[in-house]
Automatic annotation (TrEMBL):
Presence of keyword Lipid metabolism: no
GO cellular component, as recorded: chromosome
UniProt feature, compositional bias: Acidic residues: 13-23
CDD domains named among the record's database cross-references: SF1_C_Upf1
Domain DNA2/NAM7 helicase helicase: 314-397
Keywords recorded for this protein, A-Z: ATP-binding, Helicase, Hydrolase, Nucleotide-binding
Domain named DNA2/NAM7 helicase-like C-terminal: residues: 406-555
Native species: Phyllostachys edulis
Protein name: PH01B001I13.12 protein
GO MF annotation list: ATP binding; helicase activity; hydrolase activity
Spans annotated as Disordered: 1-36
């Protein structure tokens, strides 16, 4: 019955504890820019809403150094800390990587012509160094590069063939490295790379970084910057004749000083409706730079890249943490007072904690000794237990059971007379299924929700009386066996019975043209594998019919 047939009990605790920390997560439960990688994951028993990818990505959001081909800084997100070894020592922190992303795009938008000139000078320096090392091999390349830099045009192809015929080797890598792009192509290429890096950073931060009233404007700026980046991308890459955009007067025009953040949303709305390309480019460029400056000044990130301090940084700013009761011990060494932590991992014990409310789900199945772990977190003032005392924990040892080892805090508080609030409506089961447990265990005090009493819930897929809302089928002649290298049980006769029912459901689905998804649940993994092997891919070619075979836990965490 879970929470639908359970109750809530309240209690207060205020003790202290101390232990180690290993990542938990942020339970904000919102993500506008989700790319499909966010998911529930288990980290040593801790079920966290904050995807562990955040800790990996955010912890290693560092500057990789200048790209040798473009002179453009790259931000990378290695999967493991061990891969993040060759980084620029001057920019080896999350804060430095974030600022570099912002400042690089700001610099390009503010001074595109100057950036292009510096790019040419950098190539000329490389060419001079190359000529000194190998003048013969690079004669054509150096000559061609100088010509490009001075005239911004391509050398004729026959000049290239001329030097090849004379015996000089022209490396493709050298040709690519020393080729100077026209200004328009340079701006398009660099804008695409820098804006792409920044968009990756914003996506991670917006989805998974804890937020509060102080950072609300920063997250609003992130959304507006993403839209402005798209607008500028369209204008810069427009195939139509947009000479006004490429005029030096417009590109070198000074950006306005930082304006009022409250007015930016209205200015962006005006940019959306503006039809003049020159005006739209000028306004969107100015607004984008202003908002990037605001983010650079106001969104503070940790000055480190070690995983542990990053986890502490996130936990200090989160509003809700989801984890198992046993894994909550990792919070004991998290200083919830931001000022009490050192960025390199040396922490002082906090006097106060911002964790005040503890909610324990399935509390009747949690042993009392486990529940004591989160109850001792400093600062906890209110505890809410949600569970069903008719669904206690399973204790196999008779000695432990006689010693009340499996008794939960929920059960003990109930026996002591603490107030309980019965959740008297169930929304999961067909009334025919809920009738027995409600009458037997809950004295008929639980009613059925409107969703399970509607006509849509009363579907019959097979005409026989045996296939009603539920049925118990006695399968004779079978016996349980174990797999060759395991202890999990399976019953081949029951597998055959399941396949027969699935086949009948498939025929009914095809004949009526109705879509149907069949779920087969087994408590044994060996039985699941046996059914999956027999089902195979038999029904994959039919869009309206599918079969899912999983264990109980498999369906619970789907």
């Amino acid at each position: 019955m879970g929470a639908q047939g359970g109750a809530c009990a309240h209690s207060g605790e205020d003790d202290e504890g101390d232990d180690d920390l290993e990542g938990l997560g942020d339970g904000r439960g919102r993500g506008l820019l989700s790319d499909g990688t966010r998911q529930w994951q288990t980290s040593r028993g801790a079920l966290t809403l904050l995807s562990f990818l955040l800790v990996e990505k955010l912890a290693h959001l560092m500057l990789a150094g200048p790209d040798v081909q473009t002179g453009c800084g790259l931000v990378f997100f290695p999967r493991h800390a061990s891969t993040a070894t060759s980084v620029d020592s001057n920019h080896s922190s999350i804060a430095a990587g974030w600022r570099h992303c912002l400042c690089s795009l700001i610099d390009l938008l503010e001074n595109p012509v100057t950036k292009y000139k510096l790019h040419i000078e950098d190539i000329l320096e490389k060419m001079k160094d190359r000529e000194k090392e190998s003048p013969k091999n690079d004669k054509w390349q150096a000559h061609r590069g100088k010509h490009n830099c001075e005239n911004n045009v391509e050398r004729p192809e026959d000049e290239k063939e001329k030097y090849r015929k004379e015996g000089w080797y022209v490396s493709e890598a050298m040709e690519e490295a020393f080729t100077v792009l026209p200004f328009k192509d340079f701006l398009k290429d660099h804008y695409k790379k820098l804006s792409g890096n920044l968009c990756d950073c914003i996506e991670i931060l917006y989805n998974d970084h804890p937020r509060n009233s102080e950072t609300r404007q920063c997250f609003q700026c992130m959304l507006e910057v993403l839209e402005l980046i798209k607008i500028l991308h369209i204008l810069i890459n427009c195939d139509m004749d947009n000479g006004d955009i490429w005029s030096n007067e417009l590109l070198e025009s000074k950006i306005e000083e930082d304006g009022n953040p409250i007015l930016w949303s209205g200015q962006l709305a005006y940019v959306r409706t503006n039809t003049c390309k020159k005006s739209k480019f000028r306004l969107s460029r100015s607004l984008c730079v202003q908002e990037l400056r605001y983010l650079c000044k106001n969104l503070e990130l940790p000055n480190c890249y070690i995983t542990r301090p990053i986890k502490v940084y996130l936990l200090q700013r989160t509003r809700c943490i989801l984890c198992t009761v046993s894994s909550s011990f990792r919070l004991y060494n998290v200083p919830m007072d931001n000022s009490s932590s050192d960025v390199y991992g040396v922490f002082k014990k906090p006097e106060t904690s911002n964790l005040e409310l503890l909610i324990v789900d399935e509390a009747a199945q949690v042993k009392e000794c486990e529940t004591l772990i989160p109850l001792q977190l400093p600062g906890i003032r209110l505890a809410v237990f949600i569970g069903d005392e008719n669904q206690p924990s399973l204790v196999k040892s008779k000695i432990s059971d006689n010693a009340n080892f499996g008794r939960s805090v929920f059960e003990r508080l109930s026996l002591l007379g603490y107030s309980k609030h019965l959740l008297s409506v169930q929304y999961r089961m067909h009334p025919e299924i809920s009738k027995f447990p409600v009458a037997t265990f809950y004295d008929g005090k639980i009613s059925d929700g409107p969703n399970v009493t509607s006509k849509n819930y009363d579907r019959r897929f097979l005409a026989s009386k045996i296939f009603g809302p539920y049925s118990f089928i006695n399968v004779d002649g079978g016996h349980e066996t174990t797999e060759k290298h395991g202890r999990s049980l399976k019953n081949t006769i029951e597998v055959a019975a399941v396949l027969r029912i699935v086949q009948r459901l498939f025929k009914e689905s095809v004949s009526t043209g109705s879509k149907l998804t069949v779920g087969v649940v087994s408590p044994y993994n060996a039985q699941v594998r046996a059914i999956q092997e027999r089902v195979g891919k038999s029904y994959n070619m039919y869009d309206g019919f599918s079969v899912k075979v999983k264990s109980v836990d498999g369906f619970c965490y789907e």
